[in-house]
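Work Package 3 committed the consortium to producing structural models of liganded targets before the mid-term review. Because experimental data for this complex are still outstanding, the team generated a predictive model from sequence and the ligand definition alone, so that downstream docking and mutagenesis planning could proceed in parallel. The input record is reproduced below exactly as it was submitted to the modelling pipeline, together with the SMILES string for fe (ii) ion.
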Amino acid sequence: MALRRILCNSKILTSANFNCGNSRSVQTLSLPDLPYDYGALEPAISGEIMRLHHQKHHQAYVTNYNKALEQLDSAISKADASAVVKLQSTIKFNGGGHINHSIFWKNLAPVNEGGGDPPKGSLSNAIEKQFGSLEVLVQKINSEGAALQGSGWVWLALDKEFKRLLVETTANQDPIVTKGSALLPLLGVDVWEHAYYLQYKNVKPDYLKNIWKVMNWNYATQVYEKECI
Ligand SMILES: [Fe+2]
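The resulting structure, written out as C-alpha cells with the ligand in place, is given here.
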C-alpha cells in the first residue's frame, strides 16, 4: 500500500512510532496503479468504466480518507471527542472503499494474462468439496450479488479459523472484515452501479455473468494457499 507522510505539529506525542521532534506524522494513502491498462478487460468491462472507476471513484475514497485523517489528527490534538466520533463513519466508508477497490483490481486480469481461467489445485479442491462445483459457487455469488439491495459487495472469503470458504455480502464500502475478524477476502465483486452501469445499464445480472470472463483466480489461489498450505 503506497503511503505518503504529512507532518503536523502536535502537543500530544505519546507513541515512539509517531515521534519526530515536535511533530507527529500521519500516514495517508495514495491511489495504487492498476496492474493492467484500462481497456485490457474489454469486452467484459469497458475501458471507460475502468478509467472512471479507478481515476474518479477510487481516487475519491483515497482523497476523502486522507482528509478525514488530517481532521482526526486535529481533533485528537484538541481532545475533541465529539469530532473524533463524528469522523468514524467517514473513515470507515472511504477507508473501506480504498481497501475493497485495491483488492478488486487484483481480482481481475486480462484474458491473455489468465483472466477467466478456472482455479486450480487446493482452492479448486476446496470449492468442489464445499460447493459441489465451480459453477455452483459462481451461481451462488451471482445470485447474492443480484439480490443485494442498494450498493455493496459480494465476496468469496476464507474463514481462517475454520479453514472454510464462504460467500458473504457487505453493504456500502464495508470491508469483509466487518463480518468477522477471521475472514480473508479471496475475491470481491463490486456491485455498485458505478462498476457496470455505463456498459450494462440496469442489467446487473449480465455484468455478474461477464465478470467471470476476466476473474483472476490465480490471485485468489495465491491468497488461499498462503493461508492454508
Ligand atoms: Fe467501485
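Reviewers should note the following from the model. The chain has two domains: 3-112, 113-228. These observations will guide the Year 2 experiments.
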